[in-house]
């Protein structure tokens, strides 16, 4: 047994985050549960992110800093911090969010007590760029049912995905595809985790999500194509079907998770309902892909 192995790994992927990074790092290092490692993966930032990270790594041995040669996109960078993790439990952190000092302690305690819980998270408050309170965020989708098909149904319609910043069992996270490189890849991961076990929400506001102009949800509300490019920088300008990829991700999650055939059928029935409810957006995917393909053909004809 390695006595130096941390109990918890915290992964912080970041790109040009010098505006809020110090606050986020301070909130992590102030945790009352201290047996953790903090892994930072810098996605080739061009601001003062590297300087800040190296400063914190020099003064706290729990901080490990890595820098990518180029911007991989959000999803590969989020996955990279987990691939470098060694703890029994894992938590993603964003450079612009904050955690109360008791966050880790409360989540670790719950996971230690209840083996049926795969992910533990807390309630969320929304803050602005100055850290001022805006509103409480109430999780609409509860994934605490003992039945996996009911947890899956709830998480199919989860939009905010704040649970992704909860504390997760690393052993189960390794059995997934992690965050895949398309819009709402984090939501698909949550649905897969929900098939594996229950989520538990601690009824206290210990997580603070910051709203600002450069946050990922602002990008998501512009175009779904831009949202997909945020997840995977290599997809920018390419032909793709991001919502169909999301649907396929759900299908694969159900197929690869050990379930009875009755529970698997119920999950696929929920997916059929999801298809019906999202048919307008799925059609938009097909139209956009067709338009791009025809434009590409015309450009090739003009060059020949």
Characterize this entry briefly.
By secondary structure, this protein is α/β, with parallel strands linked by helices. It is 45% helix and 19% strand. The chain has helices spanning 21-29, 49-59, 74-83, 103-113, 148-156, 170-173, 185-196, 216-220, 224-231, 242-256, 261-277, 279-303; strands spanning 8-14, 36-42, 63-67, 89-92, 98-99, 117-127, 133-137, 167-169, 198-210.
Could you characterize the architecture of this molecule?
- The chain is an alpha/beta fold and 304 residues long.
- It has helices at 21-29, 49-59, 74-83, 103-113, 148-156, 170-173, 185-196, 216-220, 224-231, 242-256, 261-277, 279-303; strands at 8-14, 36-42, 63-67, 89-92, 98-99, 117-127, 133-137, 167-169, 198-210.
- Strands 1, 2, 3, 4, 5, 6, 7, 8 and 9 form a 9-stranded mixed beta sheet that branches.
- Helix 5 (148-156) runs parallel beside helix 11, helix 7 (185-196) packs parallel to helix 10 and helix 10 (242-256) packs antiparallel against helix 11.
- The chain is globular and about 60 Å long.
- The mean pLDDT is 91.
């Amino acid at each position: 047994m390695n006595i130096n192995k941390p109990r918890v790994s915290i992964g912080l992927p970041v790109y040009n985050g010098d505006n809020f990074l110090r606050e986020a790092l301070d909130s992590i290092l102030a945790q009352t549960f201290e047996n953790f490692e903090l892994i930072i993966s810098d996605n080739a930032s061009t601001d003062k992110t590297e300087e800040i990270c190296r400063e914190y790594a020099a003064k706290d041995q729990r901080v490990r800093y890595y820098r990518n040669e180029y911007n991989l996109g959000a999803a590969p960078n989020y996955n990279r911090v987990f691939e470098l993790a060694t703890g029994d439990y894992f938590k993603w952190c964003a450079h612009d969010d904050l955690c109360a000092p008791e966050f880790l302690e409360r989540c670790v305690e719950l996971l230690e007590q209840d083996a049926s819980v795969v992910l533990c998270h807390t309630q969320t408050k929304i803050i602005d760029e100055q850290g001022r309170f805006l509103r409480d965020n109430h999780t609409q989708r509860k994934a605490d049912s003992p039945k996996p098909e009911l947890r899956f149904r709830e998480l199919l319609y989860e939009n905010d995905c704040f649970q992704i910043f909860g504390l997760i069992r690393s052993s189960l996270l390794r059995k997934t595809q992690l965050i895949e490189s398309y819009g709402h890849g984090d939501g698909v991961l949550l649905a897969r985790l929900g098939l594996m076990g229950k989520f538990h929400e601690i009824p206290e506001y210990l997580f603070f999500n910051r709203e600002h102009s450069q946050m990922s949800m602002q990008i998501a509300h512009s175009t779904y194509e831009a949202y997909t490019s945020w997840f995977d920088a290599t997809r920018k300008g390419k032909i793709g079907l991001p919502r169909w990829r999301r649907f396929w991700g759900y299908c694969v999650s159900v197929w690869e998770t050990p379930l009875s055939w009755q529970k698997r059928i119920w999950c696929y029935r929920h997916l059929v309902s999801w298809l019906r409810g999202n048919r307008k957006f799925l059609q938009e995917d097909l139209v956009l892909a067709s338009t791009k393909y025809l434009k590409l053909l015309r450009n090739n004809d003009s060059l020949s």
